[in-house]
Specification:
It is a single chain. By secondary structure, the protein is an all-alpha fold. The chain has helices spanning 3-20, 24-27, 31-59, 72-86, 98-109, 114-126, 129-136, 140-155, 158-167, 175-187, 189-222, 226-260; strands at residues 88-89, 95-96. It is built from twelve helices and two strands; from the N terminus they run ααααββαααααααα. A two-stranded antiparallel ribbon has the order 1-2. The protein is globular. The relative contact order is 0.19.
């Protein structure tokens, strides 16, 4: 891509490896363990959509009257990603956002959706993310994760929003985790089929096509100067650390539940 992208990738690689090789995956043995993981992860799936729409609002004209805004190349990149993330096909050929698809997977396997649903309802009435998180009793690590994302959203720095979108989200689901889910699916196909499809779809679309688009978008937005790249690197590092903390929270909750059984 360019030397700045290469430098940023090198800086975040140790954290990426911590996520890809996280001990969380080794303790997911059955559907009950998977439920806990999903109850944490759903908050990251939701705020990804908020980050995505923030970028679309900032990089394209989404109001009337319409005027051309920014680079047409960048408009194409974000709009192409939005189409796939907001209106993909589910397992049954129906259009769904990836968030809705994930919720379907949670309902199918019996995961507790009450916290994320309470959060959404509270957010609709309060319009304040932190207050809605508190009202939902979301896990502390999930709250920290979402609040960091919203700190970047509220910064109104498009290049930072693009950086955490690109380097904090894409290509972070390891093959080991996919294999674990496939093994669980063999024993419980009626509980895990939607989640298995979500993972496969995520890897196919987000990890391949969308990651290339996102890289180009970040490159376009950061090319205004070296200071932009330095800030982008710091934001990407913090984003990955928040992901590690989120995984730590899910790991500790699974271990706690195993100890009680």
């Amino acid at each position: 891509m360019n030397e700045h992208i290469d430098k940023l990738r090198k800086a975040i690689e140790p954290l990426r490896q911590q996520i890809i090789n996280h001990r969380l995956y080794t303790v997911i043995k059955d559907v009950d363990d998977l439920k806990v993981f999903m109850e944490y992860h759903i908050f990251a799936v939701w705020d990804f959509m908020s980050l995505l729409k923030t970028l679309q609002n900032n990089l394209t004209c989404t109001s009337v009257p319409w005027f051309p805004k920014g680079s047409a190349d960048t408009r194409y990149l974000i709009n192409e990603i939005v189409v796939g993330e907001e209106s993909d096909l589910d397992l049954f050929g129906e259009r769904k956002s990836h968030f809705e698809l994930y919720l379907d997977a949670m309902h199918q396997c019996g995961a507790d959706c009450s916290k994320i649903e309470m959060f959404i309802e509270a957010l609709k009435s309060k319009s304040d993310v932190n207050a809605a998180l508190k009202a939902s009793s979301a896990p502390e690590e999930a709250c920290d994760f979402v609040n960091f994302t919203y700190k970047i959203i509220d910064s109104n720095k498009f290049y930072l929003q693009s950086a955490i979108f690109t380097f904090g989200r894409e290509d972070l689901i390891p093959e080991m985790f996919v294999s674990i889910v496939k093994d669980i699916h063999k024993s419980f196909p009626d509980n895990v089929s939607i989640f298995k499809y979500y993972l496969e779809r995520h890897i196919e679309v987000d990890g391949d096509h969308h990651s290339h688009l996102a890289l180009q978008m970040t490159s376009n937005l950061c090319d205004s100067g070296l200071s932009y790249w330095m800030e982008a690197e710091d934001a990407a590092i913090e984003s990955l650390q928040k992901r590690i903390n989120l995984w730590d929270g899910a790991y500790n909750k699974i271990i706690e539940k195993k100890g009680k059984n």
